Amino acid sequence: MLDVKTYKHLRYYHTNLDIKHGIFTRRGGVSLAPFDSLNLGGTVGDAPEAVKKNHHLMYEALDVNASRAVTSWLVHSCDVVVAERPIEGQTWLAKADAIITNTPDLPLVMRYADCTPLLFHDPIKGAIGIAHAGWRGTVQGMASATIRAMIEAFDCEPAHIRAVIGPSISLSHFQVGEEVVEAFQESFGTLEGILQRDPDDNTAYIDLWEANRRDLMSAGVQDIETMRLCTFDGVDEFYSHRAEKGRTGRFGAVISL
């Protein structure tokens, strides 16, 4: 169940995860166009002081410890890093597309603009995770890799893990080439329900939401919430790399014990 929350001028989504978290829209920050306004991406060309202020506003909205927030350098992999503490003098922990922890007061943060946000919570073991799944990460099994990492690091049971598939580009707008179709075919075996062809020109469209849902199910996760919010259609709320032709910001997601 989605709950839209506001803080000052910020707007963010709270899901069925019974833990402190938020998936933030692009609204309510201080960045100027074309990054307006809650841009969390520090490498897109926005003013660094604006990005820093936006991060502060996001952490303030959730009442989490900004000085302990950790993130990763996103590289479209399926690598997972276990976070225990921030690294002094460094803003990111490692080159990876997922972070997991069972450490309280250690907010996990990632940034998106069409790729799929994935949030995880095991209330039994007291563990959380966050991941970034573009199409490359999806075909490599980013979602299931995060689950396996939580099992190995924290002895989690997949049936106890609750997962959220956040806002990303939807099936109707994610047109791909045949090399991407082949990658999904190799990864998933069957593309029924994942692939859709245009009846006029036979071009291919991929459903990242469904692909990630199936990957989670294959790992044993049963409690999966798909937000079904399209970033391409919703550029008033979210940044979309494809809709805005690359000149845009990054929205943020945060989860913390």
What does this structure look like?
The protein is α+β, with helices and mostly antiparallel strands. The chain has one domain (3-256): CNF1/YfiH-like putative cysteine hydrolases, CATH 3.60.140. Helices cover 22% and strands 27% of the residues. The chain has five helices and 16 strands. The chain has helices at residues 48-62, 135-140, 142-154, 178-188, 208-218, and strands at residues 3-7, 10-14, 20-24, 71-73, 80-82, 92-95, 98-101, 108-112, 116-122, 127-133, 162-165, 175-176, 195-197, 204-206, 223-226, 251-256. The strands form four sheets. It has a six-stranded mixed beta sheet. Strands 1-2-3-16-8 form a five-stranded antiparallel beta sheet, with helices on one face. A hairpin with a 5-residue loop joins strand 2 and strand 3. Helix 3 (142-154) runs parallel beside helix 5 (208-218). The protein is globular and about 50 Å long. The model has no long low-confidence stretch (mean pLDDT 97).
